[in-house]
Amino acid sequence: MDKPEKTMMKGTDAIGEAAIQAGCRCYFGYPITPQNEIPEYMSRRMDEVGGVFLQGESEIASINMVLGAAAAGVRAMTSSSSPGISLKQEGLSFLASLELPAVIVNINRGGPGLGNIAPSQGDYYQATRGGGHGDYRMPVYAPASVQELYDITMKSFDIADLYRTPVMILGDGMMGQIVEPIVMHARPEVDLPPKDYILDGAEGRPSRIVKSLILDVRLMEEHNWKLKRKYDLMRNELPMHEEFMTEDAKMVVVAYGTAARIAKGAVNRVRSNGLKVGLIRPITLWPFPDEAIAGITKRAKVILVFEMSTGQMIDDVRLATQGKVECEFYGRPGGVVAAPQEIARIIERHWLQKEL
Amino acid sequence: MKKVFTRPECLKRTPFHYCPGCGHSIIHRLVAELIDEMGLRGKAICVPPAGCAVLAYNYFDIDVCESAHGRGCAIATGFKRALPDRFVFTYQGDGDMAAIGTAETIHAANRGEVITSIFVNNAVYGMTGGQMAPTTMLGQKTTTSPFGRRSKVEGFPLRITNLIAQLDGAAYVTRTSVATPAKVMATKKAIKKAFEIQLQGLGYTLVEILSPCPTNWKMTPVESFKYLEERMEKEYPLGVFKDITKD
Ligand SMILES: Cc1ncc(C[n+]2csc(CCOP(=O)(O)OP(=O)(O)O)c2C)c(N)n1
Ligand code: SF4
Ligand SMILES: [Mg+2]
Fold first, then answer.
1. How high is the mean pLDDT of chain B?
2. Is the same domain home to A263 and A233?
3. How far is it, in rounded angstroms, from Cα A332 to Cα A199?
4. A73 domain residue, yes or no
């Protein structure tokens, strides 16, 4: 790709193509709506680039195939939607402890249980709190456009290698299905550490072990602290967010992913009526952009958190703002997608009630 | 002077933690000898189980990747697909292979993954203290089948090896035992054959090895080898159930 040109692309295809361009050569996954277009895309593209596409017998098998490929030193990914991501949690915990790089896409659907196949943000806690067992964290990105899906998918593979960690991309059915013009640029140069941990047969070198069983509690404690130091580094280096019309805002909406797109429409609407309202959109959900959110407390009087859930990210917003500003919440769980008008009405109501 | 007996090179100088009389020690040795003899050290990747053999990496001086309980065949699939010219094998117990990992095992076999599974059947969960396994025999007492396994309550022992022999992706499927020195040698031959078939790229290979767990069978090593031959081999007949190089 010499000259960047615009192409129309569907969200799921953008994820797949970015992965291919990032050098991902192993995809393992199990079908589940609304993300089937990712395995479908990968089944064609992997064949073209001489990579591996394999439909696993379950999400459990698929994440473990990813683990094997990652330990073999090949860039590997899997994708699924909420119920399937629940099944991958054991594997995520192992990847985190074994310090193996992998990219996991969750196209979040309505839940809990089998739920439905509509866009939802009900998996925020599971994604950011370490849905698997043990004391681990994992970078979680929440793109909000097809371009960002492409860019962030590409970046995720570098982040995974850089920190030797699983990385999650959290989207929803809307993000996956939307078609937008994007520029497919080449992968940026990134300095990556050598993969001196991989298992590819001990030819001409001492044998290696990839393991997480550490029976000596002091050594296990040390392993946990080592991971913690890595997570601290991530907290410093990874947070990303977008600010929209926040400079003079008396009220700031905080929303991510699809909810942020809707909120942006709402902010535009109320702005045209003279209401000084802005938007902060966390792009990383873990590490959470605490500083950016804390920064609002110096300017705005009210924060309105909008999520397509009954309220999960609001906990992180409250932690970041430390009670210095009022936090209101509006949610549409279960797969309901609110229109910008609806969010605009909620903004206006709070504006009047708070006499801003 | 001619050396007639020595430690295999790909066994580390670490004493086994296995109980006296445990079959795992014998089987580890056979695998290590074959890796030496077949010159596989430089291309071998081993995926041990969650089970008594979880610490296999302390013994095998080859590349080893831990697995979550039962996921060995999926992890081995990931390795083999990523690195098709390497030699990949899982080492699994009966709980790992035939209870929690049944799906991973059967589907890897059915896809004809070019890997080998060394399946150590001791009819109990050794590591966790002797609970009932899918392979526990009718009437056999374990800590969770204290009255002896009853078909009406706990179901029947699972002969997963016979099941896998039905699958088109399986290339070589056999059951052996370590009850006597002759049977140990036959086991070594079977593992060798499985390894060779993997190297030829012909499909999935499985060697089930009946093996004593004197500790959880609550027997002396001598009693346990007798029980292995007289009871277990009746329930789990030895033999080659599939060999595509012959059939
Ligand atoms: C998900 C999960 N469930 C349960 C366990 C506990 N566990 C470890 S090994 C094992 C059974 C081992 O039995 P087997 O596979 O027959 O191997 P053996 O020790 O007899 O060789 C169990 C239940 C675990 N580690 N992980
Ligand atoms: S508990 Fe049984 S299987 Fe485990 S090491 Fe002891 S004898 Fe072997
Ligand atoms: Mg067992």
1. 97
2. no
3. 46
4. yes
| CB contacts, 8 Å: B42 with chain A | 201-204
In ligand 1, the atom with minimum distance to the C-alpha of B69 is 26
pLDDT < 50 stretches in chain A: 1
Residue B142: strand pairing partners: B145
Decide if A1 is inside a domain: no
Domain assignment present for residue B10? The answer is: no
- Within a 13 Å sphere around the CA of A200, how many CA atoms are in the beta-carbon half? 15
Q: What's the number of domains chain B is made of? A: 1
Radius of gyration of chain B (CA): 17
Give the Cα separation of B23 and B25 in Å (integer).
5
Q: Which of A305, A295, A344, A348 is nearest to A326 (CA)?
A: A305
Angle at A194 between CA A193 and CA A195, to 5 degrees: 115
Select the residue of A62, A74, A207 nearest B62 (Cβ to Cβ): A207
CA distance A309 to A317: 15
- Burial track A157-173 (b if 16+ CB lie within 10 A, e otherwise): bbbbbbbbbbbbbbbbb
Residue B104 to residue A211, Cβ atoms within 8 A: no
pLDDT in tens, B110-166: 999 999 999 999 999 999 999 999 999 999 999 999 999 999 999 999 999 999 999
Where is the domain boundary, A237, A255, A289?
A237
Q: What is the CATH number of the domain that holds B165?
A: 3.40.50.970
- Using DSSP's 3-state secondary structure scheme, residue A227 falls into helix
- Domain hosting A143: range is 6-237
Q: Does A274 reside within a domain?
A: yes
Q: Which ligand 1 atom lies nearest to the CA of residue B99?
A: 15
Residues A200 and A57 grouped into a single domain? yes
Start-end of H helices in chain A: 11-21, 37-49, 59-71, 82-87, 89-98, 124-128, 146-163, 173-177, 217-237, 257-272, 290-296, 313-321, 340-353
Q: Is A323 on the interface with B (CB under 8 A)?
A: no
Residues B46-75 have pLDDT tens digits of 999 999 999 999 999 999 999 999 999 999
Closest in B42, B66, B78 to A66, CB measured: B78
CA atoms within 13 A on the CB side of B228: 28
pLDDT tens-digit series, residues B184-202 = 999 999 999 999 999 999 9
| Preceding amide of B146 cis, omega within 30 | no
Same domain? For A110 and A24 the reply is yes
Tell me the two tokens of residue A232.
């601290």
In a shared domain, residues A222 and A327: no
B116: β partners: B89, B205
pLDDT of residue A2: 57
**Is B3 a member of any domain?**
no
What is the C-alpha separation between B110 and B229, in angstroms, rounded?
A: 31
**B189 located within any domain:** yes
pLDDT band for position B3 (cuts 50, 70, 90): confident
* Its pTM surpasses 0.80: yes
Task: Assess whether A87 and A184 both reside in one domain.
Answer: yes
Q: How far apart are CA A257 and CA A286, in angstroms?
A: 14
Taking a contact as any Cβ pair under 8 Å apart, which residues of chain B between 39 and 58 contact chain A? 41-45, 47, 54-55, 57
Say yes or no: ipTM exceeds 0.95: yes
* Residue of A95, A200, A203 for testing the chain B interface, max B β-carbons within 10 Å: A200
